[in-house]
Amino acid sequence: MNSEVRVHGRDFTAYRIGGAIAAVLLAILLGWQIWEIFDGDNRTVPEVRWGVAALDGEATAGDQSGLLAHEVLRARTRLQDERYRSGPAPASDAPDFATGAAQWLTNAPMERGAGRDLTRGWARPGSDTLELLRGSERVAGISSLPYVGAEVFERPFGRDWRLGIADFATHLGALAILGFSLLLALVLALRGRVPIAKGRSGRTVKRFGFLERANHWMTALSFIGLALTGLVIAYGDTVIRPFSEPLLGDLGWLATWGHVLFFPPFALGILFMILRWTWGNLPGRYDARWLARGGGFFSDSPDNPPARKFNAGQKLIFWSAALGGVIMVVSGVTLMFPFYWLDIEGMSWAMLTHAVIAVLLIAIFIGHIYIGTVGMQGAIEAMWGGRVDRNWAEEHHELWLAEIEGRTPTQERSG
Amino acid sequence: MARLKFLCDSDRCIECNACATVCKNEHEVPWGMVRRRVVTLNDGEADEKSIAISCMHCTDAPCVAVCPVSTLYQTDLGIVLHDKDTCIGCGYCYYACPFGAPQFPRATLFGSRGTMDKCTYCAGGPEENGSEVEFEKYGRNRIAEGKLPLCAEVCSTRALLAGDGETIGEIYRERVVKRGYGSGAWGWSTAYYPEERP
């Protein structure tokens, strides 16, 4: 075999500059995400304060108006006291009515950061309150109402679920997506593209048929649609809300419906992929060697580890799509029909699974998109036109090329 | 500063469902949704207890944390409110809620189940306090009138207490001392003191 290298990965200067720029941007985003984990804003805080209309209209300080609002309600609370303590009873006077006719409580946005101390204070019980507290455990009885879950009084798991979805899944997803993207951008900047080392031969061989390609793109586009709409739901509060709250509402609504609309083509595509490609993606004897040499990814030598139609990397992508896709479809359909076969706890787990697998799949398929487009010279042609350059085939899938050309491989390598 | 809470004295609740009924009536809550319900524990046993439950207006509220479109928000009295104009009906708040408070008009498809509704502590929503449009979306705003939730104020046995947490805690403690027993503030550790492990 001629191992003369004519095209080097580092020669793709424009790609490498693009990769470097992307790496800088992604590093900034990743830094922001890491800061988000530790900035201590994972407690929810009050955003709106109450005041009294009669005072707010005048030049009095907002604080005073707020204190009065709280005082009004505290006085009203006293009306529920036991009669032997508060009267009307022989021993004590009748309580005052809490509000005058002129008082009307108002709402105003709170100053940023003011709510944080409130939440912290609220979470700390006094010793009197501590005596009243019972354990935090699931409590269910019966209810005369015919609704799902009406019989459950308390399920502390809701708080754990919140940690799972609002902290674990979102942070894990952002780290995985941004971190992996940064890694790929760095690879592109430093290593360049994986070249067709011997240059284009000018002759092509057929790799994927029309139906396979059409199905691939249907699945790919619906996956991207599902991913983008899902990301709006998962990260809109962080990324879109600071710019415009109404925009987040509109996009959220679009995302909800879009997410449902992109589901049927995705499910159909995954099903066809499983039927069409499972056989070729069963683990084979070349896979371990291919993986051990990293697929020859970091060398410009055309002497890559041998592979049949699908190498071990492609097999991993296939199984991510197949298994991940099935998990997403099953959990997604479950979420679309609440309580059809799962109760509230089961639904909670379906939602958590859906979220965690989703962000991991997005990260994995960013890798797939990378290697299929900018990451490797000539790779896109396989799925686009269906025909690949013969030299590309020889460098990456020499056993497959030999099969379709009807000959035994030139050299059966050992070790 | 006051911190509004609910406290249901399970030794006094007689499962009359007045709180649930009066809530539905006062706020004209649509069919298929309840903002307050009564749960009976150990029904028919010697230790049977009934207890009224709705949104507890939690500290560090999980629903506010998980809402993807910032529909849910909290006020400085502790009241958790919602904005029906931004809600997308995803149901996250329902999974996160320790008390099953969020309600949806229909139990159907993601996106078609309608916008969430829940107890507002009789405090309306983001619309102008006391306005007609606020009433249509969220029900009566009694807090703006300086009044407390109707479910508690209507309770015939004073089992359900609402208002400033310290004050209702004190009322309850005095009551327990006087009658000699009490099974504590149900749901308070989960709702108000998530970081405490009693």
From TrEMBL, chain A:
Predominant localisation class: membrane
Its required cofactor(s), as named, are: heme
Q: Which Gene3D superfamilies match?
A: Transmembrane di-heme cytochromes, Chain C
User: So which domain of life are we looking at?
Assistant: Bacteria
Q: Where are the transmembrane segments?
A: 12-35, 168-190, 216-236, 256-275, 316-341, 347-371
Supply one GO BP term.
anaerobic respiration
Query: What keywords would UniProt list here?
Result: Cell membrane, Electron transport, Heme, Iron, Membrane, Metal-binding, Transmembrane, Transmembrane helix, Transport
Write down the membrane topology.
Answer: Multi-pass membrane protein
GO cellular component labels: formate dehydrogenase complex; plasma membrane
State the Gene Ontology terms under molecular function: electron transfer activity; formate dehydrogenase (NAD+) activity; formate dehydrogenase (quinone) activity; metal ion binding
Under the heading SUPFAM superfamilies, the entry gives: Transmembrane di-heme cytochromes (SSF81342)
Subcellular location per UniProt equals: Cell membrane
Q: Where is the Cytochrome b561 bacterial/Ni-hydrogenase domain?
A: 207-386
Please give the family membership noted in the entry. Belongs to the formate dehydrogenase gamma subunit family.
What protein name is recorded for this chain? Answer: Formate dehydrogenase subunit gamma
Automatic annotation (TrEMBL), chain B:
Kindly list the GO molecular function terms attached to this UniProt entry: 4 iron, 4 sulfur cluster binding; metal ion binding
Keyword tags: 4Fe-4S, Iron, Iron-sulfur, Metal-binding
Record-linked CDD domains: DMSOR_beta_like
Q: Which InterPro entries match?
A: 4Fe4S_Fe-S-bd, 4Fe4S_Fe_S_CS, ET_IronSulfur_Cluster-Binding
Q: Which domain of life is it from?
A: Bacteria
Q: What name does UniProt use for this protein?
A: 4Fe-4S dicluster domain-containing protein
Q: Which NCBIfam families match?
A: FDH3_beta
Residue span, 4Fe-4S ferredoxin-type domain: 4-32, 78-107
Pfam families found in the cross-reference section: Fer4_11 (PF13247)
UniProt keyword Metal-binding, yes or no: yes
